[in-house]
Design goal:
Number of helices: 14
Strand content: 5-15%
Mean pLDDT: 86
Largest sheet: 6 strands, mixed
Radius of gyration: 26 Å
Oligomer: single chain
Helix content: 40-55%
Order of helices and strands: HHHEHEHEEEHEHHHHEEHHHEHEE
Length: 436
Amino acid sequence: MNTPNHHTPCSMANQEYFRSKVSSFFSNGFMFIGGTLVALLIIWAILSFISPINPSFSPIFAMSNSTVPPSRDSQELPTFYDDQDLSYTIEKPIKNWDEKRSKWLNIHPSFKLVVKERVLIVSGSQSMPCKNPVGDHLLLRFFKNKVDYSRIHGCDIFYNNVLLQPKMFFFWAKLPAVRAAMVAHPEAEWIWWVDSDAAFTDMDFELPLQKYKDHNFVVYGWPKLIYEKKSWTGINAGVFLIRNCQWSMDLVEAWSKMGPQPPEYDKWGKILRTTFKDKDFPQSDDQSGLSYLLLEEKHKWGDKIYVESDYYYQGYWVDIIGTLNNVTDKYIGIEKKVPILRRRHAEKVSEWYVKLWEEYLIKDNVRRPFITHFTGCEPCSGDHNPMYTWETCYDAMKKALNFADNQVLRKYGFVHKDLLDSSSVFPLPFDFPSNI
């Protein structure tokens, strides 16, 4: 288990920008305001002398209307956005992206502060209503879960629900969204794709970005399954972290060529099924495609791809759901012994408490699963894997979402008593949980 870096990447970027603006304001603001007020008083005196009978002129009113707050880095200098050949679509490659992005950051210096730690979370779902009667509600809850995590850690989030490339449907739809997000957010060092049916179940944990400093792509999996067993399930492409750089642009281009938009789609289906003997369906899919690049083009991509298995970067829900009550009991047991961990505090200062928690989590060898992925449950369509019942999937999703929600609601003074009851909460008594 890796210890997370609790200097939250997203919030650090926001704090540094705020500090730079505050120092600039206090160094220049008072001189500007003082000079402005003196000038306005002189004008007011002159106008009062010339037209003493006109009481409608107000120097305060005039000042408030003429003062427009400057936008962040408002310089209108040419950037790659002015290139008429620039395309957000996945079919048209972008070259020299590192140079273009570097120049953009130089023109917008406030975004250069801690740029290496800035993360944009990207997710999405279909544009039409769900076929499953409770599907839209479940997607809303999964979305809320991602928004909660983003807010707590100061990340930006982009949720897409349209096909940016109409032919790239279902699991392939993520690649056009990721590609467009890279161009739309040159200030972000990392784009973090999280499937719509994946939930953050540890709201305190954050990505150990320092661990990935020499890599451009992070995916959950088991190298032995990929390289020795040649299994297409050796990784799970439902959650991945990709650096915003030219290498990643090239990877997305190579990866997407196995998708349904090029004429070679059927050919790739046959190649992937031949390569991975345990693949039991003929279509080319994103996970098999990425596995193929890892296996057959390791010399080109492998050194920059990190296959993570040290923690639940994303965990299979069947392995996780039965452990949640036990994990909760262990956390409560630690809180009962350490009064400072029970202290009420504002959500914005949670980082200090997370650091304090760390020594006890390591000592007791306990950690919530970071991300729980409901692979095979299909909450929107309801066409779940026949190896599960829908009731099993539904109850598991409610339990995981409420488990995560409790970590958020505690900062607001409430928790769910029953993880299967999504609507009922009770107020936390003072010094909870020492009094139970």
